[in-house]
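Students often ask what a 'structure token' actually looks like in practice. Rather than answer in the abstract, let us consider Glutathione binding-like protein, a protein of 211 residues. Its sequence is given first.
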Amino acid sequence: MDLYFAPFACSMATRIAFYEAGAEARYIEVDTKTGRTLAGDDFLAINPLGQVPVLRTDEGWLLTENAAILQHVAERLPAAGLMPEDGLGRDRLREWLSFVSTELHKAVFTPLLSSWAPDGAKAFARELAGPRFDRLSRHLDGRPFLLDRFGVADAYLAVVLIWTRAAGLDPAAWPAVRAWHKAILERPSVARAVREERVLYEAEQARHAAA
Ligand SMILES: N[C@@H](CCC(=O)N[C@@H](CS)C(=O)NCC(=O)O)C(=O)O
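Now compare that with the structural description of the same chain:
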């Protein structure tokens, strides 16, 4: 599988899933500012929205949308146990993937991290953050994972929470969330992805500064 990714973007969740499964993949870095891959290819021809992640599956299909990609990867690598096998477990996984994607990533973090979202959009996102982090905090209190074991929703949540400080949210306001995140960042697959993408992120920042 090929993963189109950008450093420290939500695409890191799929990298974590591959590392967790010990699976090989091809990682194609995208500069979402220029809409090109680092090799110079037109990424808008791959995803007209210019967004990562995009997955090229083993069959050659192009798949967008993080929640869909994570479920695809979890299904293709069943030995890693990244998604529950039973019906209720799968429903709960979809529930958390949707929550992380729509309620946290898009509703809260996207406006707060945007360089062009107007102040009103940012204020609205800050209002939304409270009840969503409260819900997450109640669920994570005393639990190591969102479900019974580490899965793709944990990978996605681990990545989204990395953005908390940059988004201007105070992680101390939700100690259970902070404790969960601190622990998950020590998981080898997560720590490796963060370590490797940090190097790529710094290189990206340097390229942008020089442009
Ligand atoms: N709905 C998409 C959103 C993906 C998304 O927001 N990707 C961000 C990085 S986390 C991105 O590529 N932003 C660049 C842009 O929107 O130009 C998904 O869930 O995969």
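One point worth highlighting: The chain has a mean pLDDT of 98. Ask yourself how you might have guessed this from the sequence alone, and why that guess would often be unreliable.
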